[in-house]
Amino acid sequence: MVLSVENLGLSLGKKRESIFRDVSFSLGEGETALLEGKAGSGKTVLGLALCGYLPLWAGNFELSGRIECLSGQVEQGVYPPEAGILLENPYTQLSGLKGSVLQEMAFPLECLGVPRAEMPAVIEQYSALFDIGRILDHPVRTLSGGELQRVLAACALMSRPRFLFLDRPLTEIDTGFRPVLMNLFRSHADSLQGAVLLAEDPWLMPGETFRNTIHLSPEVKQYQPVGADSGEARNKPSGGLLRVEDVSFAYPRGDRVLDHLSFSAGEGDIVFVAGPNGAGKTTLARIITSVLAPSSGELFYSGRPGKEMEQWEIVSLVGFAMQNPDLHLSRRSVGEELSLGGEEFCPSPEMVEILGLDRFLSAHPLELTQAEKKRLVMALALGGNRRIVILDEPSQYQDEEGFQRMTEAVSRSAAEGKTLLIITHDPRFYQAFPKAGEIAL
Hints:
The structure is a single chain. The protein is built from 13 helices and 18 strands. It has helices at 43-50, 54-57, 101-112, 119-129, 145-158, 178-192, 281-288, 311-317, 334-339, 349-354, 370-382, 400-415, 427-432, and strands at 3-12, 17-27, 31-36, 61-69, 72-73, 83-86, 163-167, 195-199, 213-215, 242-250, 256-265, 270-274, 296-301, 304-305, 318-321, 388-392, 419-423, 437-440. The strands form four sheets. A five-stranded parallel beta sheet has the order 6-7-8-3-9, sandwiched between helices. Strands 15-16-17-12-18 form a five-stranded parallel beta sheet, with helices on both faces. The longest helix is centred in the C-terminal third of the chain and has 16 residues, at 400-415. The protein starts with a strand and ends with a strand. 44% of the residues are buried.
């Protein structure tokens, strides 16, 4: 037996609010199991508890029951060397000490005391498995979300823990690489006679089956992706609100991510921006919002050349919900965040209610779940008089209710004449908006 959990219960805060209770299950050698539950049901804190990391995230908690990992009892704050974890938010798992991908991958080996002469062969092996060899010399802070998730998954497996908890490891991975990643996780469990527990949404893993599924809330509805794999070609959008003409972009190190890209979008258009990890989707968003300037080509906003506009004019016209929601948040309450831009940029009370944020107005933004944070920054991007809105992987971490709130917000905004560019790998979006346009990078 690799992991045994008996009658586990968790309460948080001074009021001892119950997160889950009476959780019991076990994982045998070579087993990969699925952990399911609605957003906020406790999947993340359960995984932290299984690895002894709970005190780092939950300052005031009460844990009952028993956890055994490889025949030893797990005590909170004492981290069993056989256990490893991949965190829900990949941006929080960077060491903070290393500059390049190569150095970041060397870090877990350094912590394990692997001789320096042996490190290159290990790094080469895992960089090939995760298809990240081409970015080993890249600064980690410049990676796309999917590239970063691959790097950190590689680091987690390189440490060779016999029990591994993976918290939503597929949310930023492109659809083509997800089956490859799942095979890597299963092979890890098999080769070490260990176990992997995966907290992830079933609709991101079509065709995957699990002998053991642990439910932390009523059974999650199985989503059947249709639109993403229907084989129907989507129209390239056209319209006068946003026009991108022959845009190319290369980073200073010479990496070219956009090559003579042209498209346009009009009022009320919903447009998916698709492509594999590292294709330049987020780079395109940064160019449209004037954070980056194109290497060549031009952008036009309602017919006006972007190079003739002040940056504040573009920022007031274009809303951007970034992939990492924490980068948006700076105030002490959700209410303060929503009102920060004043009347001109504040989302309407109706939009706040649609996104389910009205009950969190007095809460600190960093106390929200990742799903709630994503809806908060979506509301900020949609706020006020902005006419073009870019949503970078907005549906990450959303259960069915959260996703339905997002699709209603998108529909309402499009009906108001806003243009929405949605960067996504989520098949649910393609099903929800079958007539949307698509830009493939």
